[in-house]
């Protein structure tokens, strides 16, 4: 669903603004009504739509809402007049009544929601039946945006605007015009986008060739899923010759009374004149009385019943064709084939009047007739099949010849030199004001002007203007809009450069073009891609070298570190590093990867953090990305040494940093300690299947071999690592994870009604959430006011939601939560349940102990050693539904015992799992490793 930003603050008689009115009455309201009706009747449908930021801005604008209402009132008056004019025409009068009733109905529907449609779409998304994608901020054709900063600003603005409207981040994005170019996926991944829709040619000609052809998404080098459109289903609907909308029983789009009436006399013209443009230009009114009838000019009156019946027949035909296509694909696929059928939303209702009816018939037939073909959203598919083939997809679009031809040809190519010049100027200006932080009125005005300049540039970049120039429709308007926004942009930049901003003029531009209220000019700040040596300025480098003299310099290597928090590794490494730094005996460094918004180098909580950018190529998947990460880390440490820096001890965390650890160890004869947080063998249930799993296992083995000492976090991990890598007993050290008790526990918020069972963690099979949901009915039998709160995300989320659906509001999924939300839920929980089937350690258990929450854990892995059954909590048999239900129920029914066990658990936490104790053990390991290296050096 997309429209360009066609709001005109001064007048409402622009032809282009009518596009919005028509889309509202003919597409958005009918589609919304269709989906709400299906939902209210319990039809389990799935539809995915994109709602572009410019469309959201129009829908959310009170001025545009009021204009839509005025337009509706005008159409109601016209329809009532038509009923009088056609009083003696038995063929057309029923249609006049149909339109009058329809317009009144949509007015009532529009007013019932306070003229706000976005919350209603959001409510449908909350049911899981509708999935809403975002798009680039102004639907810019991204391959023709010159700089990475320009693309980043389009995506960042879109994501932030989506969060503002829907209260959640988007999972997917409709790339404008399905236009993809290499590297866009890296920016999408930075903003949490999981998938995008692309043209079939993007995957059809991917390298290597896609094994599953067009029947499954392809994972790009940066881990974003590309869903290709299915050509067969697209052709079936879109085709101008064979597509459904051309059926003779459907309403004829081109026979509108705005064009048909008023030619015979001045009186007739005066009748229709109030309903066309004030310039007397004829336009469509939306009242059309004829069906297509034939390919010629002969037309007969429209028959709604015939049209509805034909839509139902064609829904059956569409399903049968998809079934035949799926049957063919099953012959060579290893999974259920996916057929993705994308269309312009305005096809349904606007161009194809019966389109919403066809969609409704399709949804009902797929639900009630129990076809083997089912509807699914892209997110649901990724949850069902989280693993995909990886490939490098080619530059493409769904435009003419699958290229950029529509948006870059003789009639519109002149715009790009101006857009690119403006783009570069925006980057320079934003970068020059990167430190804009003072809150004086002058600085605030400069910030507003910079934000408005960003708006004007983005509005000039809209792909719609180039598209219109190619189509040859309202070319003057497209040219005018491009020049208007570029002119506003340069005037703003000139005023900022000369420090001559006029507050009234800035406010005027803000009022005229007021989309994206949270836009940030900082998204255009130049992306530094420094070589490792430039992470620190020369002056800062000399200062750090001086600060780190005279003490042992410990360098930890970890691919993630806050604010990059992908898994539990970042938390474990950061809390250990900060505790070692607090002791003051050593200088602690962490070498990690760069993260958007975080400085390349800083001293935080006493730790020197080196965030190294990974200058990876465009066709790199994660496994090979880690190799390039190691090259960048190695270069940085070599240059650190050459600048006079010390590296006295290396501590490598998991296999991802193996190459750097080995290279620096051997080059400078530095002792190496390794922590293995989990093994590939253990993560995959005690087996290695794929080539990737064997490669990771090989790197884990190599790291253990090179290390002087290998640290693991639990007794089961001691046995696992010894078994996997044939390590001698004296090479292994058991150091449990700890928890930071230096920060105060927040005050307990007001409790919810009922008993709260809280789970937090990844939603994957080995975490056992499915067992906990299965146990809940037994718990509810004894504790009727209990409710289960599930925090976290993962590939099993949809499956788990379906499993829990019959439990209604007794189960609530709250998604991925930040630390403050986690603290709040922990504090209000009556019991924390950790039903893991495999758990190397179980850090969540320590967090629950910190908040003195009663614990029920699985008797497996590290959890088995954290909790003593009946003393610090209960241990349930792994995967045993009854056992888990019994122990959770007992915790809830006997709160006195639960509180007592929680107190015991806290005491154990204080005595055994504080980071100061673990840091002391690790420091002893460092001392031993240093002594061994020294002894070996003397022996040689």
From TrEMBL:
Keyword Iron-sulfur attached: no
Binding-site list for substrate: 229, 246, 398, 464
Keywords: Carbohydrate metabolism, Glycosyltransferase, Transferase
Top-rank taxon: Bacteria
Cellular component terms (Gene Ontology): extracellular region
CDD domains the record matches: GH57N_AmyC_like, GT4_PimA-like
EC number(s) from the headed UniProt entry: 2.4.1.18
Active-site residues, as the UniProt record annotates them: 177 (nucleophile), 344 (proton donor)
Residue ranges constituting the Glycosyltransferase subfamily 4-like N-terminal domain according to the UniProt record: 566-742
Molecular-function GO terms, alphabetical: 1,4-alpha-glucan branching enzyme activity
Domain Glycosyl transferase family: 749-907
Residues annotated as domain Glycoside hydrolase family 57 N-terminal: 1-385
Domain 1,4-alpha-glucan branching enzyme C-terminal: 418-524
Keyword check for Glycosyltransferase: yes
Leading EC class: transferase
Biological process, per Gene Ontology: alpha-glucan biosynthetic process
Family indicated by similarity: Belongs to the glycosyl hydrolase 57 family.
Record-given protein name: 1,4-alpha-glucan branching enzyme
Organism of origin: Paenibacillus phyllosphaerae
